[in-house]
Amino acid sequence: MAGRPIFVATHPRSCSTAFERVFMTRPDDISCAHEPFGDAFYFGPERLSARFADEPKLREESGFTKTTYKDVLDSLLKQDKRLFIKDMAYYLFAPQGQPTSMAPSLADQANGVDKQTGDRAANPTTIPLSALQKFRFAFLIRNPRRSIPSYYRCTVPPLVETTKFNEFMPCEAGYKELRRLFDYLRAQGLVADDDITIIDADDLLDRPAEGIEAFCKAVDLDFRPEMLQWDDSAHQDHATAAFEKWAGWHNDALASTGLKARTSHKKTPSADEEDAEWASKYGAKGQKIIRDCVDTNMPDYDYLKQFTLKF
Hints:
Elements: E1 6-10, H1 16-24, E2 30-34, H2 37-42, H3 56-62, H4 69-76, E3 82-88, H5 129-132, E4 136-141, H6 144-153, H7 160-163, H8 175-187, E5 198-200, H9 201-206, H10 208-218, H11 233-242, H12 251-255, H13 271-305
Parallel strand pairs: 1-3, 1-4, 2-3, 4-5
């Protein structure tokens, strides 16, 4: 049997694409899905995001204007290999804390009953509980002091010319939605208290082999040391094709040849030092936007951090 599909929920700029590349080295027994729900979230008829709202040509060029959340789920669950999904938790939520309705294309599927309240409306996502129950969830996080500046950089020149994300939207930071998803899955028993799998990207970068081995053990997948290397043309071509739809976001991961331990560790800068660096790169306005977003999301990161896998 292929095993229960693995769903790694994360937020932007968490080193998640490098993490995904580890599992892409095993096309013989693992099928990787790269951010599939973004197709429906940004471009489809049920899209929840306001991004690209005034850019119909760009949405049309994406090729996903007819893609519904049901289409995404159906395509994922047809796989005959062990499925590894890496996706943004916020793709399952209406932005800015708005109430999230079930995707119309999934309205005929039972949403389940909340075990604590008996409330059928307790599910905070656009995906029915009956669908969420099909996945083995894990989570990847990174300190907002590192992820938010990295995300902002992709929304300003010169990278914005490639990414097409023409403004920085703080609601896309993704931490609040990741925490809400985690808490809901715990409440429903889909994430057991004695089987929580959350990895911090900085821990992974310090000890990649140990981190991947611990993750594999947690999700019932055999660990192979060679998973940490992808320095041949076949792997590179596979990754280039998989990441094509989000041009400009994965340059570092595409340029890599493996997941290697960091050989040097920079001293963690003070807030004043960070502010000075951000101001020098993005101006006073950019610095303030980044700092406000970091401060807003730090409590959710700290909350999730307490559950991280030790290795």
